[in-house]
Amino acid sequence: MPNINETLSKLKKSSFRSGFHLTEKDRAYISEKGMDTIRTHAQEFVRTRLAPAHPHNDGRQTPMRGHPVFVAQHACACCCRGCLEKWYRVPQGKELTDIQQEKIVNLLMAWITQEISR
Asked: Relative to the CA of 54, which of 21, 45, 47, 94 has its CA 20 to 30 Å away?
């Protein structure tokens, strides 16, 4: 994956990806839980829903709303293995490494941080 700032800039150029934003409910949830808890949720979602070589329901495993991390996943093209392959050349059919998972979580958290600052 390229660096986070380059990636966020590239995502902003996509009309689909740039259309995702946190709602007031998402912002309130982040405020209530704190960023450490949100990061823990992101780590869990990536580990269980994205990291397996063949995730259950791949392509439909990430809801479009209901949690700030879900919104971030769609905004950052980290919602399914197909998007990871298309945007970041991460091959499907191979389990994500711990380093890949960490990079994805860092990207999601950077997007969330950027969103709550706007």
From this structure: 21
Round to whole Å and give the CA distance between 25 and 9.
25
Give the separation between CA 58 and CA 80, rounded to whole angstroms: 6
Distance CA(46)–CA(52), nearest Å, equals: 9
| Torsion region of 77: left, alpha or beta (phi above 0 gives left; psi -120 to 50 gives alpha) | left
CA dist 25 and 47 (Å) reads: 25
If you count them, how many residues does the chain have?
118
Residue identified by tokens 């269980």 is 48
Nearest Cα residue to 112 out of 60, 16, 40, 14: 40
pTM equals 0.94
- How do residues 60-117 score in pLDDT, each as one tens digit? 888 888 999 999 999 999 999 999 999 999 999 999 999 999 999 999 999 999 999 8
With H, G, I as helix, E, B as strand and everything else as coil, classify residue 47: helix
Joined together, the tokens standing for residue 43 give: 């780590």
